[in-house]
Amino acid sequence: MAGRDEAAFDVLVSRWQERAYRIAWSILRDADDARDVSQEAFLRVYEHADRFEGRARFSTWFYRIVVNLCLDHRRRHGWWRRMVHALDGVDARDSALDRQPAPGPAVDDLAAGRQTMRQLGREVARLSPQQRAAVMLQVEGLPTAEIASVMECAEATVRVHLHRALAALRKSMGSG
Amino acid sequence: MTHDETVIVPYLRGELGPDETRAVAAHLAECAACRRVADDFGALLETLAVAPTAPAPDWGRYRVELRARLEQRTGRVTRARRWAPAPLVLSGALAVVLLVLALGVDPRPPRVADLGAVEEAVIGERLDLLREYAVVERLDLLEDLDVIRDLDRLEPVREG
Fold first, then answer.
1. Shortest Cα distance, chain B CAs vs residue A7, angstroms
2. Among B78, B140, B62, B61, which residue's Cα sits nearest to residue A4?
3. Inter-chain contact A39–B66, Cβ cutoff 8 Å?
C-alpha cells in the first residue's frame, strides 16, 4: 500500500467497503453522507498509507479515520441540516426511513418486533455522535480497548459513552 | 462493588478481569436494581446486534465514484485492471468481445458509453456468457482502460 499499489488498494476497498459504509451510516444516518464519508476514508488511506506504521491493527487505524471523518462531518454539517429540516418541519435527527409513516398497531409478535426495531433505530439516531460511534463499534465486535483506540480516548471514556447510550435507550424504550 | 453501572457493559461483554468479574457478579446477585439494569442492557446489546443496519448502496456505482474521486485527487488516470470491481469478470467479458470479433463469430459491435455503463452492462448482462468460456478464466485480467475506451474504434472483422 505504501507503494501506491492500486491493485492492493482495490482489494482493500473490496474487503472493507461494507464495514466502512455501515459504520458511517450508523453514525450519520444518511445514505448519501455515508457514501461520501466512507469513500473519503478510503481516499485518506490511499494518500496516507505510509503513515500506517503497523503498530496498531489496520482495522483500528481505518475505523479511526472513518469515525473521525463522520464526527467532523456532523460538526460541519449538522447545524445546517437541522436548520433546513426545521424549516421543512422535519426532525433532522431522523433518517429517511424514520420519516416513514409509523406502522399501525402490532397484531402479532412479528409486527411488534419490527416496530421495536424501528423504534430502536429512531432512538439510536437520537444519541450523540460519540455515543452512537461507541455503540456501533461495539456492535461491530470491537473490544472496549480497541474502541478507545479508534475514538482516541480513554477506555473509561468509552465505558461512559456506552453506559450513557444504553441508559438513554433503556429509558426511551420504556424499560428504565 | 458499589453501584458503578459503567462496569455493567464490559461485564456483559466479558472484558473484566477475574477478580472484577467476581465482584460484579456478587453485587448483581444482591442488588435487584443493578440486576434489572444488567438484564435490560443485555437485551439491548442483543437487539442492537441483530437490528437492521445500513441500506446497501449500489456497490458498482460506489466503486465507480470512488475511482473517479481518486483520479481527481491524484490527477492521473488509474489503470482499469486495478480498478474494476470484478476485474476478472470485466476483463474476461471484454476479452470475449475481442475474441468473438477477431473470430468473426458475432459481428455485434461492442457498445461503450463510459466506464460505468461498461461495468453495469458487461457485468450485469454477460456473466452468463462468461461461464461458457473456460478460456476466459485464464485470460489475463489486466485490460487497459485505453482499450476499453477505444473498443468502438476497433477494426471490424470481415466475415468469410
1. 4
2. B78
3. yes
The mean pLDDT of B110-116, rounded to a whole number, is: 45
Q: What is the DSSP letter of B155?
A: P
Element (H, E) at A131: helix A129-139
pTM to 2 decimal places: 0.61
Residues A169 and A122: beta-carbon distance below 8 Å: no
A176·B78 Cβ contact <8 A: no
Are the beta carbons of B15 and A143 separated by less than 8 Å? Answer: yes
CB B125 within 8 A of CB B93: no
Place A13 in a pLDDT band, splitting at 50, 70 and 90.
very high
C-alpha cell at A157: 471514556
Asked if residues B66 and A16 have their Cβ atoms less than 8 Å apart, the reply is no
Per-residue pLDDT at B140 exceeds 80 = no
CB contact residues (below 8 A), chain B span 19-38, against chain A: 37
Question: What is the DSSP-derived secondary structure letter of residue B122?
Answer: I
Q: Which of A117, A138, A156 sits opposite B51 (nearest CB)?
A: A117
Note whether A138 contacts B63, CB cutoff 8 Å.
no
Determine the Cα–Cα distance for residues B57 and B90; give it in Å rounded to an integer. 20
Residue B72, chain A, CB below 8 Å: the answer is no
- The verdict on a CB contact (< 8 Å) between A10 and B83 is yes
3-state secondary structure of B141: coil
Between CA A66 and CA A53 the distance in angstroms is 18
B70-104: pLDDT as tens digits: 888 887 665 544 444 555 555 555 555 555 555 55
Asked if residues A39 and B69 have their Cβ atoms less than 8 Å apart, the reply is: yes
